[in-house]
Amino acid sequence: TKSENNRTKVALPQGINQITFRTAIAELRDRLGEEHVEFVTKLDDGWYMENPNTHDGMHVSDEDDFVASVVVYPGSTEEVQKIVQWANSYRIPISPISIGRNYGYGGAAPRVRGAVVLDLGRRMNRILDINPDDCTCLVEPGVTYFALYEEIQARGFQHLWVDVPDIGGGSVLGNALDRGVGYTPYGDHWMMHCGMEVVLPTGEVIRTGMGALPGNNSWQLFPYGFGPTADGLFSQSNMGVVTKMGFGLMPNPGDHESYLYTFQKEEDLSQLIDIIRPLRIAMILENVAQLRHISMQVGLEGKPRSFYYKGKGRVPDSFIHEAAQKLAHGDCSWLYYGMAYGPKEIRQYKLDIIHKEFMKIPGARRIDPSTLSADNYFWVRDRIASGVPDIEELRWVNWHPNGGHVAFSPVSPVRGNDATALWDIAQKRCEEYNLDLFPTFVVGLREMHLIVEIVFNRDDPVMRDNARACLRGMVDDAAKRGYGEYRTHLAFMDQIAGTYNWNDGALLKFNEKIKDCLDPNGIMAPGKSGIWPARYRGRGWEM
Ligand code: ADP
After folding, report:
1. Domain identity same for 323 and 383
2. Residues whose beta carbon lies within 6 Å of some atom of ligand 1
3. Within a domain: residue 57?
4. Which ipTM was obtained for this model?
5. I need a labelling partner for 201 at 20 to 30 A (CA). Which of 64, 361, 362, 461 fits?
6. 449 with 516, same domain?
């Protein structure tokens, strides 16, 4: 579905008048070339493969709440520096994106309406290095998982894998900066990064780790270098524009084998999570675990909700289970997708342990992959867990016409009682706001994220309001019990930053101090992750 909104009035950044703005943009065009600076005069939500860089294509409030005034396309680190210097001279807010997909978390949109979006993806999309001996790469912001995967194939490096997230159209660098995950043993993208180049908010460029030592040959090998490690300051932050980033690439393990287990009862969740914990920490479960609720599996069929249920309120569980009976693996409450790596004798040792442990749950079933057709979702997970990018995942967004989605993403220990507590919070709030929920537990190593996707109709303001209120409610309920989110949509960043408030908000104060020091004019992505520069702070921007 597409919505197009033609607008003649450009959203100006607050505090800048029309004349100054036009002068500033004319100057930017002079510096960068006319064709690399575009006014935002049209909003088109597009779809995944044609994602907008002007606003949030999955907007959970009005389409032009979080909207850019202008999009600028730098072609090099030097051009990024020029733009940053320009922004300082006019005090115009700028907001960097790589590809700008970031679906469910705000897409390409700036937090501050009227900011200038720096779209690094269009022109800065070179793979600067793939080192087949060290198994590393160095990429610019515009390199997608698809592009990196294809280049590795083209160069014949069969021994190298890329770790890919659920959908492969995003930026390798952007996903890592926002601390996204993938599904090989290299699934923690931030952990696997090594070395960055960053343009600071005042225009200086730094290289982190070994990159600070001229003539080094270990920038992508040792992330720490010497002294304090600065890298964390540039993740989920507004302290700089990252222009290069290195990563470790996983060696091809030689062979791999996906498995799927189903569990019958909703209450099995608690026992199952307690079984998963020691297996995951010991890496018997080798990749980031995907434990999905059956509702999400039904959603993946790609049919609208009205196909299953015409009533109001949440779709009753009985309708979901009835639909699930028609799926290849039959009805159940939870599905565990995993993969074992390496040659048969190595895999089998682990698979046997997993089987023995999972089968302790009454009614547990191992689904035989040979019974599943080639278009079964199982093979999507199989591709993703073996480093092949895919785009099937978002099929559940069709649940509502003109569907959008937003995620509640709390972190907890891998414990049955925590899983149950979060599951209860999500269900109660979704019940209260008449929203269906699509939950997946994603087990990192010692922690898990519960990802609850809420799908809504982008054209239905009541449903959007409900989705926002529901998210806010879940965030509050979770915080009261000691759970915080790992990532969030622009609309909830202040609320969530506010929940990380130990010792009278000491962490946020520390971030603000660094922000004011690095970005005295407050031009870089104001408000990202709840961090506001001094001249915005306490002036009604927080929401
Ligand atoms: P993807 O398309 O992979 O989902 P995005 O390009 O949308 O990722 O990036 C996700 C978020 O990370 C952005 O909203 C932005 O806050 C931040 N980000 C992305 N690229 C950069 C960058 N090069 N420098 C600084 N921050 C960035």
Report:
1. yes
2. 96-102, 108, 120, 141, 170-171, 173-175, 177-178, 241-242, 528
3. yes
4. 0.96
5. 64
6. no
